[in-house]
Every structure is written in structure tokens, then in C-alpha cells.
Write a structure and sequence with these properties.
Distance between the termini of chain A: 29 Å
Structural class of chain A: mainly alpha
Helix content of chain C: 40-55%
Oligomer: heterotrimer
Order of helices and strands of chain A: HHHHHHHHHHHHHHHHHHHHHHHH
Number of helices of chain C: 11
Strand content of chain A: under 5%
Order of helices and strands of chain C: HEHEHEHHEEHEHEHEEHHH
Number of strands of chain C: 9
Chains: A mainly alpha (about 525), B alpha+beta (about 325), C alpha/beta (about 325)
CATH superfamily of the largest domain in chain C: Periplasmic binding protein-like II
Shape of chain C: globular
CATH architecture of the largest domain in chain C: 3-Layer(aba) Sandwich
Distance between the termini of chain C: 51 Å
CATH class of the largest domain in chain C: Alpha Beta
Largest interface: A-C, 66 and 64 residues
Radius of gyration of chain A: 24 Å
Shape of chain A: globular
Chain lengths: ~525, ~325, ~325
């Protein structure tokens, strides 16, 4: 029963494409703007001449960096995926004591910026560094990106599948292995992509781990030669690695369908009994909580106690707080709006063009803030928007577009297209129809994606340092400045405020987590 | 051949009593329907038998094995009971062949078994490599059936097997499934809220209401000899005569018990010639081959009931018609 | 939860417009913009005191030496910077070679010791720091310390010392080495450094590495040790400082520079600031504050806790010969960058 396109159907497809043309155009605009960093890199490469490119790209240091990155990802992504799946199953589907509390604790590390994790660990356990330190810290900081979609997907699974598998003779463990885990594939892929992209772009966390990645090498070059070709060419290699990762994720997803077939009964599933493993299983989430939350809490408290009252300089702290808030909120809204066209297209009107555009939206998430900032500085340096908030916000949009797209895509997919069609038939223009139905339904999910973006902006460091207007201080840049001067006590309030600011965003994320799964 | 026995099974979820006190015997090789309105507890019963839940009280015995009683219960994966969920519940990440062979062990000749099962359920062998989402609803149900039968279970449980399908497909699939199950010779227990499905598909029917089995027996038993008015109405149109309307339909023994007649027991003649009972047509709904007429008896105007009459010469509204009763009315207990 | 209601849209639009206009309309009155590569707290101290003294508001943009130097060059005549302050000299040389500095008036130059400013008079020193070898006092004693910084290239020092090669501080030291010992020797030393040393990011981190026993010594600047000692001591409890002296490249005293951009629109105020900085009041902050850098003003005393400048016996290096472009080239070739 293969479907063949009749003439009528292909005519309908054309009409459909024409109708969605405005959305496609909008997505194209965003994708084109996202290309700015890579076009900039290409421009630098071309203007440097082939000899320089060869000399700067094909050298041992770059080989070192590639190996480092590949090994980091090859270790980090699988370990984090396994951890996320195991702990998500434990907290969502078993009778683990305090499962609800653990699931919150698993998401909480998102409230602590990655570089604060790094500082906290380095202060308590300076022996932790190098590759394994980098892997450990990456997992502690970014595991929530994997845990959230997997846990959300687990909650949405059709219980009938597991019942059926049991009736077919599979023990509970085998049911989990052969039926539950395969259904998590999409969620793991989406989460792993975010995880991997963030690892590639992360700077502050790896600085203290003394582990060289492209991001750290780029900043090193940048701080030595500013806009030299070496920094930009390293960025070029990074873009290639990122595209490679996107390709891998796409392969891993496969073409199979994973969504529930049919509506299914919304039944609360019986939790699996862990039996004798009930108490020992606590070790896993407990250990993670101590590492990811306990260590930063301890270090920050220690610094604050050592610092006393003098570290609370409100005349510095309050402006930093308000500036951070403003940038985060406006940036998050702009990013979410920018993500809507491609997210809608990828759910309602997938095509090869759309897939290409989507890749354009994602790759910027792998670039360290430095590259994006570099590109924008070069372009805007003679323009009136140089060193204004506009440029900074634009950089944020580019940097955090992937987060917004992934979340929006999932929440738009939740709302059936029939609603849009119904609204159109009731006389709404297509745009209004989408706004009234899908967007309304997707709003909670969109809010969650916006929260994720705001979180990223509040903690963003290098791009902010480079692009912000003179006199702008965010919590992150203040923290970084103080720690660079050994003044941990003064840095502590800023770290604490970053955590406090992030906490409600994390809460929002967690309660809307159902929407953020691929 | 194994029989299933349920003895005083009870299950409560928090405040809700899903099963109050259920006892049932299922004969070997039979097709038994548990039927009842939504919320009557029939799905719970099925899940208790399958082993997905444990009863609070009572025992479940299959053949020589006690599946569940006060001392404990055998987990679902060791019961050897086949289960087909409401919408098939095929594993979306596996092909049809992998789905069917899911419960088979390593040693069995999987390909041959899959082909044999596909043949059994009337699906082409080429379907083995398809994915579930490429199949229609009916095809999915058949694959689910094949999958459950693959392990040669001693009991098959079907949860509302046809309710997800279009009406047009339902009957065809029903016949096919009946055929398959007979050929396999396996005891079948299925749950449905559709009474005509229960009557046609099963050879033994149990009606459940509010967590208890109200009546069980052959389909004819439940149709012609229901225990009470509610049961009677569940299985089709019923004319209940009690109290005032007792003598409405002519020379009938007017005892104190309520009486039930099925509309098809009442013959209608368009003219009132010598028919013992006079009646008037109140409304007439054309339904294709037949018209549904709302009749009011002359003697007791409060007694109104619906009759079907071939449309070709059905009487009009307001016509006076004559009724003749065939067969004996059935006394109801409650 | 309504999404994009009319109210929300208007609010967002208003917010964004306000944000866009934010930076440009921030200061209605004349104010100075400093591109600052010095430590933020020190410059803030200077700026606050200057503002209190003169009433002229100061806005600080922070970055690192070469980053900002190159940024100024790229901005060219459009640069909003009035003043450029650095931690080391190479960045000043870079900007000077691009011809972007305004020659300084005599009254500013007179305030600074001649050794701490270039002869061109296009910029001046504002503070100074000494290269040191911070070592683990539990592991190394007087006899086992390196006599010269060049010794660290010996195979005997493999895996024993640390530095922060990506930082402008260290690159200034390398620039001095290049100026004193030439390209060949410096290149060889750098290649040996790749083999022998572990790379940290930041001098503090390098010092902390020594403190934790990860390395026996590190090549950093002196004030990191003093700063930590005055604070919590958590990165320097086990560390002592070794001064190379003997005009060794390892005794290099790096000059922090200050200059006025030729493109500045507030040259008078900028001159006021630099004069103040190089004068007794600005230099007093070096003496009394917590930066622990050396004062360079004529007759200005440094923090009493420090080893006096006169005792350091540094090599004579003309700040305008420090070539960072070459240094980056050599370090990239050695695989350090």
C-alpha cells in the first residue's frame, strides 16, 4: 500500500508550500542571519590565503585540540546518556524512596552556572583536572539537558506496551530494556545533542580544568591577537565538528516512528519494584546531588562566610543584577520569537530546505561566544550599533537559538494540526489561526524554552565581555573579574545571585518539562 | 485445556471499588465476554487475570495453577496468558515480524513461526517488514493477535478489541478473529461495552455492573431471560410491563412480577382487523430498510415502546394499528 | 497563559527600544571612557577617587591587554575610547605603532621615572610588576632554585614548573626575553617550555597549582602572591617567591601603561586623568591599596610589604621594543597557543 503522489496531491503540496511561504521566508531570514559567524570565518580564511590557512589549521596544536574534543565528547555523551536514562527510570518509574525530590534535585544543577561548578570543584578538589575532570564537570553541569527530555518522555509512555510485553513473558527488567528504553531514543538524541553542543562551546568550565578545547584555544588566541586568523580558523574547525555532530545525531534518530500510535489510555503506571536494590539505588542520585549541588553550596557558603558583610556592595551588585535580568528577559523573548518560524516549519512542513535551515539554527550553539562576538564586532565596528545592547542581544539570539528551537519544536508537535485547520475553516487568516491555536497550546512549552534561554543568557560570559556596551556589568562578568583577581569572597555574592536568579527558571522548566522532549 | 476460575475477587483503588465480589467460571475452549457499561470494573478484572494488578481479596485459578490468592500472586510474565490491548499496542520501534516474534525464545524458528501466524490472521507475508505506523487499525489488531498467539497461551485476554475500529470494519474483523481463535482452540476472555458484539462473538456472556457479575450465561439466556430490567435494557430494546401496564398487551397473566417482552415478539399489523390489541403510532423514523415506530397502546397509553417495521409499507403517524404477541413474556426478578 | 498579547508585544517593543537607546544616551555630560586592561578593582579605585576629586565621571570597559589593544586598532578613528590602560607594555607598543596615541604633554611625563616610560613620549607607565619564580617552599630550597629563567628549558626541569602562556602577562615576559636574547634562543626556550611545563590559565591558577603540589614552581608576577597572602592565603600558603635579579630576563619588570587616544573627543579631561594617575594621588593608591603593584611615579613609594624596586636588579628593556606579534608567532609555532 505505498502512497504514490497523484497529480492532485502534488498540486495540493504546491499550494501548501505557497501558503507557508511567509513562514519559510521568516525562517530563511533567521537562518541567513545565523550564517553570519560562519560567513565571517570563511571570509577570514579566504582573505588569509591558503598558505596561512594550512599553516594555522594543519598543525600539531589543532590535532591536539581535535583529539581532546573528540575524546571529551566520546566519553561525556555516552556516560551522561546512560546516567540520565538510569536515573530518569529510577525517579519516574520505580519505587525509589523520595523519587519526586530526587527528580527536582536532578534538574537543580542547571541553576548553577557551569563555570561556578568548576570554581567550586577546583577550590575543594584541586587534584581534579585534565580529561576526567573535564568529563566529570561537564556531566555535573549539563546532565539536566539529558535528564529533562528523557524523564518527560518516560512520563508519556503508553503503559499498554509494557503490560503487553509482560504478558509476552518478559520479566520487568527485560521489559525496561527492550520496550521502555528503545522508546527513549528520540529524547536521548535531542538531549545528547544539546549536551554535546554545550560541551563544545563551553569556555569557563574548562579553563580551571586545564583541559584545552577549541573554545579555550580560541579565547587564548583572541586574547593574544584579538581578531587574528588563527582564532577564526580554529572556529572554522569547530563549526565542522559541530556539523559532524549534527549529522551523527540525525543518523542516530533514524527514520523510525517513536510516537505513540493511537491515543492510548492515560493510565497511571504502577511503579516497578526495586526490591533489595531500593536503598542501594539511592546512591546514584544522591552522589550526583552531592557533587553537583553540595560542592558549589559548600564553596559558596565558605567564601561568603570568609567575606562577611563587606562583600555585599549593593552599589555594584544591584546594577549588575538589573542589567542581567533585563538582558535575560529581553534576550529570551527575542530568541523565542526568532525560533518560531523554523520550529513551526519543522513540525508542520518538513522539507529538505527546512532541514538545511534548521541546521543553520543549530550550529551556532556549538560556537563559543567568542567567535560569534568576534564576527559581530568586525561587522559592526564602523556602525552605530557597535557596542550597543542591540548587538549584544543579537549575539545572544544566535548563541541560544538551538535551545529555543528544540523546545518549541516539541511543544508545537504536541498540538494537533487539526486545530489550526479548524480555526482556518472558521474564518481566521492562517497567521491568526496558528496564533490562536497552536501558539496558545505551545505557549507553556515556549515559556519553558524561553526560560532555558534566559538561563543561558544570565550565565553567559565571553560574548558579554566582548560585546556589551561600556559600563555594562552582568553578574557573570563581575564574578569572573573578581575570581581573576583572587577575590573569591567578593565574587561569591554574584555567584549566589546567579543561582537565585536561575532557580525560578529551573522551576519553570521542570514543571513544563513535558514539552521539552524531542 | 484449562479452565479459569475467579472466586470472590475484589479490588479497590483508593476510594473506587473496581471489583466488589466477582466469581466466574470460564470453560475451557470457550469464548467468554465480560460486558458492561463504562466504569463497571470489567477492564480491572481483565488486568487482574492478566497479572498486571493483584486482587485485594479472592483467588484466581487457571487450570491447576493458582495465579493469585491471599498468599501472593504470580507476576504477569510467568502466567502464560496472552493479552491484546485496546489499540493493539504494537511496539513502534520494531517491525511487524519483530513484534510477532517478540515473545518467542531464541531457539524457535522465528521466521517460520511469523509466517505461519501471519497466514493465520490473514495478512500477507510481505507485511513482515513493515512498521506498525504503516498499518491500518484493523491490520494492527491482527498483528497484535498474532503476537499474543505466538506463545501458544492457555488463555487469551482481549481488551475491547474492536472498539477502536470503524464500524464497517468491525464485523469483518470480528468474524476473522473468531475464526482464528477457534482454529487455535484457545480459551478466550474478552471485555467489551458493546452488547451486540458480546452477543455475537461470545458463547458465554457475563454482565458486570458496579463491580459485581450480575448475570452470566449463554447469549440467548441473557437476551431472552435477563434477570432485571436494567440487564434487559442493556442488551437491546425491552418492553417492561409492571404495575399499571401489566395488562396492556392483551390476554396476559397479570401477576405481581414485572414482565419483559422483546419488541420482535410483538407483531404489528397496519390494520386493526381482529387483532386483540389496539395501538397508535406516535412517531415514525425512517432508517432505511426499516422504520422505527413509537407505539402507544390503547389500553394503557403510558406504555410506549419502539418497534421496527419494514419501511415499504410502514404505517404513518397517527395510524391505529393492531398488535399480536408471540412467545411468552419473561418474568424479571428486579 | 496568553502568548504575544497586544500588551505584551507593546511592552517588549518598549523594553527593546529603551535597551537600544540605553548605551548611547547614558551620559549627557562629558565623561571619560577608559579601555582598561589593568585589574578591574585597581582601575575602579583610581576612577572612583578621580571622580571624587574632579567630578568627572568615568566609564570603564574591561578586557585584556592585547584584546583591547587590537580592538582599538580595529575601531580606528571611531573608537569610543579616550584612555587606554594596560597591565604590560606590548599592547601599548602595538597601539603606538599604529599611530593611534596622542603625544603626552611634558607635565604628565615628568611625573614618571624615565625607566618606566618610552622615549617617544606617546604613553607613560602607571604601575609596574616584577617577574618572579613562585615555588613550593616545602619542595625546593635556595640551592635547587633556578639561577636564570633560561634554566627552565633544561631537561632537568621537565614536568616541574608551570606558567600561564595564554596570558598577556607571560607573553610580555617572553617579549622581554625576545628583546634580550634574540629569536633563536627564545624560540628554543619556548619549545622546551612546551615539553617541560604545565599550562594554567591565569597566574593565580598557576600559583595555586604550586600551592597544591601539582608543580614545584611557576613563572608569574609578584603581586599575585602578595594579594593572596593579604586575603585568604588559600592559593599561596605553601609558596614563596624567588627573584632572579642579576639583570636576568627572569627579573624583567613589566610596565603597565597608560595613553590617550588621538581619536579621543575629551582630550583635556583625559590628560587630567593621566596626570592625576601618574601623580602623587594616583600613585598613593598603589601604595595604600590592595593591588600590591609597584608605583612608578617620581618620588612615589610602593607598598611597604614589597621588595623595594631598587633591589630587584632588572634587565634594561626599552618598552617600545616589545614585539607581541612576533611573540605570538613564536608561541603558536611552539604549540603553546
Amino acid at each position: 500500500m505505498a502512497t504514490a503522489y497523484t497529480e492532485q496531491q502534488s498540486g495540493a503540496r504546491l499550494r501548501f508550500r505557497l501558503r507557508v511561504a511567509p513562514v519559510t521566508a521568516a525562517a530563511l531570514v533567521v537562518a541567513a542571519l545565523s550564517l553570519i559567524p560562519v560567513l565571517f570565518i570563511l571570509y577570514v580564511a579566504l582573505s588569509s590565503g591558503w598558505d596561512t590557512v594550512v599553516q594555522l589549521v594543519f598543525r600539531p596544536k589543532v590535532g591536539e585540540l581535535i583529539v581532546n574534543t573528540v575524546v571529551l565528547e566520546a566519553l561525556g555523551v555516552p556516560i551522561a546518556s546512560v546516567l540520565a536514562v538510569v536515573i530518569a527510570i529510577l525517579t519516574e518509574r520505580t519505587n525509589l524512596p523520595g523519587a519526586r525530590a530526587w527528580s527536582w534535585l536532578m534538574v537543580a544543577p542547571l541553576a548553577v552556572p557551569a563555570f561556578v561548578h568548576s570554581y567550586a570543584w577546583n577550590s575543594l578538589f584541586p587534584q581534579v583536572h585534565g580529561l576526567w575532570g573535564a568529563v566529570l564537570l561537564s556531566i555535573l553541569a549539563y546532565l539536566p539537558f539529558l535528564y529533562l527530555p528523557v524523564a518527560a518522555q518516560l512520563r508519556r509512555l503508553d503503559p499498554a506496551l509494557e503490560d503487553t510485553a509482560a504478558s509476552l513473558g518478559l520479566s520487568p527488567f527485560k521489559v525496561v530494556w527492550r520496550v521502555v528504553i528503545p522508546q527513549l531514543r528520540l529524547a536521548v538524541c535531542g538531549g545528547a545533542l544539546l549536551f554535546g553542543l554545550h560541551m563544545m562551546a563551553e569556555y569557563g568550565l574548562f579553563v580551571l580544568m586545564r583541559f584545552d578545547t577549541f573554545a579555550t584555544a580560541i579565547v587564548d588566541q583572541f586574547q593574544s591577537v584579538y581578531n587574528g586568523p588563527a582564532a577564526n580558523l580554529l572556529g572554522g574547525v569547530l563549526v565542522l565538528l559541530c556539523l559532524l555532530m549534527l549529522g551523527l545525531e540525525s543518523l542516530a534518530r533514524g527514520r523510525a516512528r517513536y510516537a505513540r500510535i493511537g491515543s492510548g489510555a492515560a493510565r497511571v503506571t504502577k511503579p516497578y519494584d526495586l526490591g533489595r536494590l531500593r536503598i542501594p539505588a539511592l546512591l546514584l542520585p544522591a552522589l550526583l546531588a552531592v557533587f553537583a549541588l553540595g560542592v558549589p553550596a559548600l564553596t559558596l557558603s565558605r567564601w561568603m562566610i570568609l567575606g562577611g558583610a563587606r562583600i555585599w556592595r549593593l552599589d555594584y551588585i544591584l546594577p549588575a543584577l538589573t542589567q542581567t535580568l533585563m538582558l535575560a528577559v529581553v534576550g529570551a523573548i527575542l530568541t523565542t520569537i526568532a525560533a518560531i518560524p523554523i520550529a513551526w516549519l519543522s513540525v508542520r512542513a518538513p522539507s529538505r530546505l527546512q532541514a538545511l535551515m534548521e541546521a543553520g539554527h543549530y550550529y551556532t550553539g556549538a560556537l563559543p561566544g567568542v567567535i560569534i562576538a568576534l564576527a559581530l564586532v568586525t561587522i559592526t565596528v564602523r556602525m552605530p550599533i557597535y557596542q550597543t545592547v542591540a548587538t549584544l542581544l543579537f549575539a545572544y539570539v544566535l548563541m541560544f537559538l538551538p535551545r529555543a528551537v528544540v523546545g518549541l519544536r516539541a511543544s508545537i508537535a504536541q498540538s494537533p494540526v487539526e486545530l489550526e485547520r479548524a480555526a482556518t475553516s472558521l474564518g481566521r487568516s492562517p497567521f491568526k489561526a496558528v496564533a490562536a491555536t497552536t501558539m496558545r497550546l505551545a505557549a507553556p512549552g515556549a515559556a519553558a524554552s524561553a526560560a532555558l534561554v534566559a538561563l543561558g543568557i544570565a550565565n553567559e560570559l565571553t560574548g558579554t565581555l566582548m560585546l556589551s556596551p561600556n559600563g555594562t556589568r552582568t553578574l557573570a562578568t563581575r564574578f569572573w573579574a573578581y575570581t581573576a583577581e583572587l577575590d573569591f569572597a567578593s565574587a561569591a555574592p554574584y555567584a549566589v545571585l546567579m543561582v537565585v536568579l536561575s532557580a525560578p527558571l529551573v522551576v519553570l522548566l521542570r514543571t513544563r518539562a513535558e514539552r521539552i522532549s524531542s | 485445556m484449562t479452565c479459569l476460575f475467579l472466586r470472590n475477587v475484589a479490588k479497590t483503588y483508593g476510594e473506587v471499588v473496581a471489583a466488589a465480589d466477582v466469581s466466574l467460571d470460564v470453560a475451557a475452549g470457550s469464548r467468554t465476554a465480560i460486558v458492561g457499561p463504562s466504569g463497571s470494573g470489567k477492564t480491572t478484572l481483565l488486568r487482574l487475570i492478566a497479572g498486571f494488578e493483584s486482587p485485594d481479596r479472592g483467588s484466581i485459578i487457571l487450570g491447576a495453577d493458582t495465579l493469585a490468592d491471599g498468599n501472593g500472586s504470580i507476576p504477569a510474565h510467568r502466567r502464560g496468558i496472552g493479552y491484546v490491548a485496546q489499540e493493539g499496542a504494537l511496539f513502534p520501534h520494531l517491525t511487524v515480524a519483530e513484534n510477532i516474534a517478540f515473545g518467542l525464545g531464541r531457539g524457535d524458528d522465528r521466521e517460520a513461526a511469523v509466517h505461519a501466524l501471519l497466514d493465520l490472521v490473514g495478512l500477507p507475508r510481505s507485511m513482515a517488514t513493515r512498521r506498525p505506523h504503516e498499518l491500518s487499525g484493523g491490520q494492527q489488531q491482527r498483528v497484535a493477535l498474532a503476537r499474543a498467539l505466538a506463545r501458544r497461551p492457555r488463555l487469551m485476554l482481549l481488551d475491547e478489541p474492536f472498539s477502536a475500529l470503524d464500524t464497517g470494519l468491525r464485523e469483518g474483523l470480528r468474524d476473522l478473529v473468531a475464526d482464528v481463535l477457534s482454529k487455535a482452540g484457545v480459551t478466550t476472555l474478552f471485555v467489551t461495552h458493546d452488547q451486540s458484539e458480546a452477543l455475537s462473538f461470545a458463547d458465554h456472556v457475563a454482565l458486570m455492573r458496579d463491580g459485581v457479575i450480575v448475570q452470566s450465561g449463554s447469549p440467548e439466556d441473557l437476551y431472552f431471560r435477563p434477570r432485571d430490567a436494567e440487564t434487559a435494557r442493556f442488551f437491546g430494546e425491552a418492553i417492561v410491563l409492571d404495575g399499571d401496564s401489566a395488562g396492556a398487551l392483551g390476554a396476559l397473566d397479570a401477576t405481581n412480577a414485572a414482565l419483559m417482552l422483546r419488541p420482535e415478539q410483538v407483531e404489528l399489523s397496519p390494520e386493526l382487523n381482529g387483532s386483540p390489541i389496539a395501538a397508535r403510532v406516535l412517531s415514525r423514523t425512517f432508517r432505511g430498510p426499516t422504520c422505527r415506530l413509537l407505539i402507544e397502546t390503547a389500553k394503557v397509553p403510558s406504555l410506549q415502546f419502539k418497534l421496527d417495521y419494514p419501511s415499504v409499507d410502514a404505517p404513518e403517524v397517527g395510524d391505529i394499528v393492531g398488535l399480536t404477541v408471540t412467545g411468552k413474556p419473561h418474568p424479571l426478578l428486579g | 497563559m496568553k502568548f504575544l498579547t497586544a500588551k505584551a508585544t507593546t511592552a517588549i517593543a518598549a523594553f527593546t527600544i529603551a535597551a537600544l537607546g540605553w548605551s548611547s544616551s547614558a551620559f549627557a555630560q562629558v565623561s571619560l571612557t577608559i579601555y582598561n586592561a589593568q585589574h578591574e578593582t585597581l582601575t575602579q579605585e583610581w576612577a572612583d577617587a578621580f571622580m571624587e576629586d574632579t567630578g568627572i565621571p568615568v566609564t570603564i570597559r574591561n578586557g585584556s591587554d592585547l584584546e583591547m589593544g587590537n580592538q582599538i586598532i580595529q575601531e580606528g578613528a571611531n573608537s569610543p575610547a579616550d584612555i587606554f590602560l594596560t597591565e604590560n607594555s606590548p599592547a601599548m607598543v602595538l597601539v603606538d605603532n599604529a599611530g593611534l596615541f596622542e603625544p603626552l604633554p611634558q607635565d604628565i611625563l615628568e611625573q614618571v621615572e624615565p625607566g618606566f616610560r618610552p622615549s617617544s613620549g606617546h604613553w607613560t607607565g602607571i604601575a609596574a610588576r616584577s617577574t618572579v619564580f613562585a615555588y613550593d617552599k616545602n619542595k625546593l630550597d635556595e640551592a635547587s632554585l633556578p639561577k636564570s629563567i633560561m634554566d627552565l628549558a633544561d631537561p632537568a626541569w621537565k614536568g616541574r614548573w608551570a606558567a600561564s602562556p595564554a596570558g598577556a602577562d607571560f607573553q610580555a615576559i617572553v617579549a622581554a626575553m625576545l628583546s634580550l636574547k634574540g629569536e633563536e634562543a627564545t624560540s628554543a626556550w619556548l619549545k622546551a617550555m612546551k615539553e617541560n611545563s604545565s599550562a594554567y590559565r591565569g597566574n593565580r591558577a598557576a600559583m595555586a597549582g604550586v600551592n597544591n603540589g601539582e608543580a614545584e614552581g611557576a613563572v608569574i608576577y609578584h603581586y599575585y602572591w602578595y594579594g593572596d597572602q593579604a586575603n585568604t592565603k588559600e592559593s599561596s600558603g605553601n609558596v614563596d617567591l624567588h627573584y632572579f635579579k642579576n639583570q636576568d630576563p627572569g627579573a624583567f619588570v613589566s610596565v603597565s601603561g597608560g595613553g590617550i587616544l588621538a581619536s579621543s573627543k575629551h582630550k583635556d579631561e583625559a590628560k587630567q586623568f593621566l596626570k592625576w594617575l601618574a601623580g602623587p594621588k594616583g600613585q598613593a593608591i598603589l601604595r595604600d591599596g590592595t593591588s600590591f603593584e609597584y608605583a612608578v611615579g617620581v618620588g612615589a613609594a610602593s607598598n611597604p610589604a614589597l621588595v623595594p624596586l631598587a633591589d630587584l636588579d632588572p634587565p634594561k628593556v626599552d618598552p617600545s621594543t616589545l614585539d607581541n606579534v612576533k611573540v605570538t608567532e613564536l608561541m603558536t609555532a611552539a604549540g603553546l597557543l
